[in-house]
Amino acid sequence: MKDIPVDSSYYCIPATSKVHHEPLGVVLVISAWNFPAWTLINPAISAIAAGNVVFMKPSEVTPHCSASLRKLVE
Fold first, then answer.
1. What is the pLDDT of residues 26-53, one digit of tens each?
2. What is the pLDDT of residue 26?
3. Which of 25, 19, 74, 31 is nearest to 47 (CA)?
4. How much is the pTM?
5. If you average pLDDT over residues 44-64, what whole number do you get?
C-alpha cells in the first residue's frame, strides 16, 4: 500500500508524481465447516493488512470454534 514514485512529464519539471493505492472497501469472509479457523483468519488478515474493513462470518456447523474465534477477535 506504499506510494510508488513515478517519473513526471518533462513539461512539469519541478513536479513529483506518485501512484497512490487505495483499499477497495468492505470484505466479507465466510468460513467453511471443515477448516473453520484457517478459512476465516487467513483471508481476514490479508484484507485487514490491505486496509479494508472485514466482516467475518464463521460456520454455523462449528459453534464451539466460532465462539473461541469470537473471543480471539474481540
1. 999 998 888 888 888 999 999 998 888 9
2. 94
3. 25
4. 0.63
5. 90
Look up residue 14 and give its amino acid: P
In the chain the first and final C-alpha atoms are separated, in Å, by 26
* Cα–Cα dist 57/32, whole Å: 10
Q: Which three cell numbers stand for residue 55?
A: 466482516
Strands annotated E in the chain:
4-6, 17-19, 26-30, 53-57
3-state class percentages of the chain: helix first, strand second, coil last, to nearest 5: 35, 20, 45
3-state secondary structure of 74: coil
